[in-house]
Protein 1
Amino acid sequence: MKLIFLGAPGVGKGTIAKRVVKKYGLVQISTGDLLREAVKRGTELGHKAKKFMDAGDLVPDDLIIDMLKERLSHDDCSKGFILDGFPRTIPQAEALENSGVVIDKVLELAASHDVIIQRLSGRRTCTQCQAIFHITNMPSKQEGVCDKCNGELIQRDDDRPEAIQNRLQIYETQTKPLVEFYTAKDMLISIDAGKSVDKVFKDTIEALE
Ligand code: AP5
């Protein structure tokens, strides 16, 4: 299974992708996680990407495409994968097609801006294992501590209000055109992501089976 999860920032792509990869034994490839790891390790890519990410802007296509191709060359991708947060522009989608990777389905997770802003502003992420929590929707047992690995939970720099507005605007102008791109290829399934995590997961599995 080779899938793309498409959707606005904070709609729940990462949360649902983690459950789907567990169920089917797939690999989750989050370009956001790969970039944050590069920033943490202080690589050249990390240095170049940081200023775009902190402002909520997209990292330039050439950097992202090279990073993704490198990740897709790893052996574990033969199990099948979910691309979470890629592609985000038409040139990225075209580069993926031209690389010969055949995607089975594109799942669009959709929710209102009010729901998304509530989710992003309360999100907390584990600095060690990348587990995702929410201060009210999915609180950790102990405030600031990851339930899974005891790592520190932090608020991402791009979950500040100014960056959130910018990310939502960029989604509308640069990423939303992909809905039409994949609909025209008869690959897109749209899921109402405004519901509970259990319900969105159930609907996602039904859409895949
Ligand atoms: P990235 O990390 O991909 O961020 P994003 O797409 O903005 O998505 P998020 O991770 O913010 O949200 P999500 O949809 O995964 O939601 P989550 O599951 O966490 O990218 C970050 C940056 O990297 C970009 O801004 C850009 O600079 C750069 N970048 C990455 N990829 C790129 C690319 N391809 N091209 C160029 N630049 C790129 O959920 C959010 C919160 O809601 C959580 O707290 C969660 O607990 C809660 N929640 C989730 N689902 C539910 C639910 N159903 N009910 C209640 N709460 C829920």
Protein 2
Amino acid sequence: MRIDLHTHSTVSDGTDSPTRLVMRASAARLAVIGLTDHDTFDGLAEAMAAGARFGVTVLPGVEISCQQNGREVHLLGYGVRTDDADLNAELALIRNSRNGRLLRMIQALQSAGVRIGIEDVHRVAGTASSLGRPHIADAMIAKGYVDDRDEAFRDWLNEGRPGFVRRYACDLARGVDLVHGAAGAAVLAHPWARGADAVLTPEVITGLAREHQLEGIEVDHQDHTAAQRSLLFDLGGRLGLVRTGSSDYHGTGKKNHELGCNTTRETAYRELCRRIALRGGVLGR
Ligand code: AMP
Ligand code: FE
Ligand code: FE
Ligand code: ZN
């Protein structure tokens, strides 16, 4: 049974609609996917309806933009109640700050000679409800400034580049508490990707597990080396955490993240579901 618990749709910065994503999951012989768009629940209803049609179980999720010691880190919330007031208020705050940052990044890019406007970003973002740097990258591609998202991030959008502007993110421990408040289970996304091991040390992860009842960590992820995967697997085992593996699929928006390129073992998935059920959360169907 193939299980991929971390994917994105056009509701945030993926390039497949929730329905198209589920169709592709079915074609990739995945029995279960988690839809985890950045800071929004907006794709879940469509994905779950498509899951019923195409024979794919869709575990509802969200990837929350968090921060630890001033560095951005990502938290996956699975099985959360999408009507929870506190979690919705926090996600709305993050999405708002995404919109404000978007305008300031466009100003910064214009000062650096890149002539794109907010309307160009909205044109490529379509109906996305959570706007991010990948949409600015797409607008730059459409106007011929760069060839792909990688080049846009490398030259313009990454921290330290001319277009970068920081935005608000939720304190990580509070994010875990908010997921629990919404009856879900919390899993650290790609904890050691892109240098995040500097802030998500074994001590910090241990603290989240012991003091905030973090449920899991993503171990198998394209941004982790084999050595990191091995260390995270052992750490998670010692802490009694569910250890997941996933693609972090973004459609054509992210290279080398094909659906099902990493998967979660069935035993780990069952344990995650058990922990969601214990909290009274929403299981995949
Ligand atoms: P934001 O959430 O607006 O700060 O943008 C960060 C998002 O951009 C992450 O969730 C990644 O999915 C995506 N991203 C980061 N670097 C790259 C890259 N080099 N190519 C494509 N997508 C990227
Ligand atoms: Fe993303
Ligand atoms: Fe992420
Ligand atoms: Zn992701």
